[in-house]
Write a structure and sequence with these properties.
The protein has 382 residues and is an alpha/beta fold. The protein folds into 2 domains: 53 residues, no CATH class; 275 residues, Purple Acid Phosphatase, chain A, domain 2 (4-Layer Sandwich). Strands 1-6-7-8-10-9 form a 6-stranded mixed β-sheet, covered by helices on one side. Strands 5-4-3-2-11-12 form a 6-stranded mixed β-sheet. A hairpin with a 3-residue loop joins β11 and β12.
């Protein structure tokens, strides 16, 4: 074989394994491509391209290079995704700084108590005062009228006060946020409601004020500052359809909220937020809470229930750390989305929608100054 012995072929193979093409490999070995092909055929090596491809996987150096290239490409893609995430975060915090909203913060001047800094948040929505529910329409599961509403409202305030006092043993609880988050009254947006409501619209508002005021008064006695946010729902509208721009101006709740504020004007530590909009926002220990009733969310009957449309809406909004909703009568917490239950409970309407049975309940949680949302509680009202 002359110089084309086993050692020579091994050296050529090692030389070829460092290149990706036959021409480049031949040029580095100072060989003519066509001459090398004839040489391979004469020595029974077959097509050098197949011989070269078969030899490459056995070269650990070449394999390592390919793995490093793939790893580098994966790192680039990961870095690109991270850049997008950071840009979204920067936009989010720009939005937070660009809007001035009421804020609750730790009082640094007070002596250290050893307690964790935290603020209770109480959600009160979907009371549907004035609406009636009979045992017949719920197959015996629920009954609701003004008398039952009064008992449930009293239980709700008692239980929130009990929870607040328990949390205050280990947390500051210097301030409290009460979120009146819509549908406090039944209204008459459906013909059957106008037909079956226990009382008219004026009496609904008056009863709502009477049942809400005691809880605000008692909570105000326990805190330095009490913030009450007042967001109207869809049941309180006096128009045939929901109106976004002027919804507050055509809402019975907007009137009831002002009535309630004027009645409790003597409470100097109570701050009222009654927006001329569909919602509002409050910063609690640098965590922004965005409050809206939830009328704008659709497709709650689809796959995944309310979770999918709510999280999609929150992701697109990207303007707060936590989003508080009423409307759906389901006391749940989906990460950054918190949904309140109802005072009215099961009804013919919920059964018609095919919603699972839920006990009448409301939601209460705390915002920890360091950890965000904590102590998510379903507050029983029965």
């Amino acid at each position: 074989m002359g110089k084309h012995n086993a050692k020579w072929w091994a050296e050529i193979r090692a030389q070829f394994n460092t290149h990706t093409s036959l021409s480049a490999a031949c040029a580095a070995a100072q060989l003519d491509v066509s001459g090398f092909q004839r040489l391979c055929a004469r020595h029974g090596k077959g097509d050098p391209r197949r011989w070269l491809a078969a030899a490459k996987p056995t070269d650990t150096h070449a394999v390592r290079e390919r793995l490093e290239l793939r790893a580098t490409a994966a790192d680039v893609r990961a870095l690109q995704r991270r850049v997008v995430e950071l840009e979204d975060a920067a936009d989010f915090y720009t939005k937070l700084k660009g809007a001035t909203v009421p804020a609750i913060a730790l009082n640094r001047s007070r002596p250290k108590s050893g307690k964790r800094g935290a603020t209770p948040v109480i959600m009160a929505s979907d009371w549907h005062i004035g609406e009636t529910v009979s045992a017949e329409e719920t197959l015996g599961r629920n009954v609701y009228n003004l008398e039952v509403a009064a008992k449930r409202a009293a239980n709700f305030w008692d239980n929130t006060l009990w929870l607040r006092d328990r949390w205050a043993e280990h947390e500051t609880c210097d301030d409290t946020l009460i979120a009146l988050n819509g549908d406090g009254v039944s209204g008459s947006i459906h013909p059957e409601l106008a037909e079956t409501n226990e009382v008219g619209l004026v009496e609904q508002c008056a009863s709502y004020v009477e049942l809400t005021a005691p809880g605000i008064i008692e909570h105000s006695k326990r805190v330095h500052r009490l913030i009450v946010t007042c967001v109207h729902g869809n049941h309180s509208r006096v128009t045939a359809k929901s109106q976004i721009k002027t919804g507050w101006a055509n809402s019975l709740e907007a009137l009831a909220f002002r009535w309630l504020r004027d009645r409790l004007a003597h409470l100097e530590n109570v701050e009222w937020i009654i927006p001329r909009a569909e919602g509002c926002a409050v910063d609690v220990h640098e965590y922004r809470l965005q409050l809206q009733h939830g009328t704008q969310i659709k497709s709650q009957g689809g796959i995944g229930g309310i979770l999918v449309p709510l999280t999609r809406w929150a992701t697109r909004a990207a303007s707060a750390h936590y989003y508080l909703f009423g409307h759906f009568h389901q006391a749940e917490c989906y990460g950054k989305v918190v949904v309140n239950g109802s005072l009215i409970g099961d009804s013919a309407y919920s059964k018609w929608l095919g919603l699972e049975y839920r006990e009448p309940e409301q939601v209460m949680f705390s915002v920890d100054a360091r950890r965000g949302l904590r102590h998510f509680e379903r507050v029983s009202v029965t």
